Amino acid sequence: MDVSEAIATRRSVRGFLDRPVDPALLRGIVEKAARAPSGGNLQPWHIYVVGGDELTRLKEIMAQRITEVPRGEEMEYDIYPKTLGEPYASRRFQVGEDMYGRIGIPREDRDARRRWFARNFMFFGAPVALFCYVSRTMGPPQWSDLGMYLENVMLLLREAGLDSCPQECWAMYPKTIGAFLDAPDAQMLFTGMAIGWKDPDDPANTLHAKRVPLAEFAEFRGI
Ligand SMILES: Cc1cc2nc3c(=O)[nH]c(=O)nc-3n(C[C@H](O)[C@H](O)[C@H](O)COP(=O)(O)O)c2cc1C
Predict the structure, then answer these.
(1) Per UniProt, what is one GO molecular function of this protein (predicted)?
(2) Band of the pLDDT at 116, cuts 50, 70, 90?
(3) Distance from C-alpha of 131 to C-alpha of 45, rounded to nearest angstrom
(4) Measuring from atom 31 of ligand 1, which residue has the nearest CA?
(5) DSSP type of residue 106
(6) What is the rounded distance in angstroms from the CA atom of residue 155 to the CA atom of residue 162?
(7) Counting atoms of ligand 1 from 1, which one is nearest the CA of 208?
(8) Is ligand 1 within 6 A of the CB of residue 191?
(9) Given ligand 1 and candidates 90, 133, 168, which is best to mutate, with the most ligand atoms within 8 Å of its CB?
(10) Of 29-33, 110-114, 216-220, which range is least confident?
């Protein structure tokens, strides 16, 4: 697989098989991904990978937390701007409609949509979870470094035949996850990620999120 194929086949997968992932392979990917560039070579990512009995324990904790505090704990950062303007609001709306269309949940059925969203907190059945933290002292440039690291992880997973779903919804439960991982207070949870083998029969995995055409986001001058 070359880079183009890894990029083209990476999708956010929301349904995984109950099939384990080789721990040595995971370690290798988490290490290799750190070849990502970062401003000043700060390498600001701090990664936790959770699987096996530990993941079972976390899923049990979360099953309880999402009933106790369904709207989440106090957020440590805004996932989206408080007022999401255009064209971003329409893009977000579109991918939501496309997703719920695939799994046949109409807009009016808010309860079903909420229940489906809650599958995030079971990692969509994935056997491995990754959490990415960053020091609270870091700002937007270092947060962008996290993105480069995480994309490397996702592409390397593709190379190994694996899939993933980045999940910033975990920012809704920073206290629970921080306590579970025993993460230092000086670190802030940016995102989680579900990792595993894609379930080809899960209708959610038929979604192919659209992208806007090149001319809408890039301008070329002098070339
Ligand atoms: C940082 C980040 C956080 C995300 N958080 C979630 C999430 O919490 N739950 C989810 O289902 N998808 C999540 N996504 C997936 C996006 O919805 C997805 O990347 C986008 O719709 C494009 O689809 P694609 O990844 O299949 O190309 C996240 C993506 C990124 C990059």
Answers:
(1) oxidoreductase activity
(2) very high
(3) 10
(4) 166
(5) -
(6) 9
(7) 26
(8) yes
(9) 168
(10) 110-114
Specify the DSSP class assigned to residue 72: -
Half-sphere exposure at residue 134, Cβ-oriented, CA atoms within 13 angstroms: 25
DSSP state of 185: T
Assigned token pair, 91: 């893009």
User: How many CB atoms are located within 10 Å of the residue 137 CB?
Assistant: 10
Cα–ligand 1 centroid distance for 167 (angstroms):
6
Nearest CA owner, ligand 1 atom 27: 11
How is domain 3-74+123-207 classified at the CATH fold level? NADH Oxidase (3.40.109)
Q: How far is the CA of 166 from the centre of ligand 1 (A)?
A: 5
Residue in 158, 173, 161 with CA at minimum distance from that of residue 122: 173
If we measure between CA atoms, which residue out of 55, 71, 70 comes closest to residue 16?
55
| pLDDT per residue as tens digits for the range 10-38 | 999 999 999 999 999 999 999 999 999 99
Q: How close is the Cα of 222 to the center of ligand 1, in Å?
A: 34
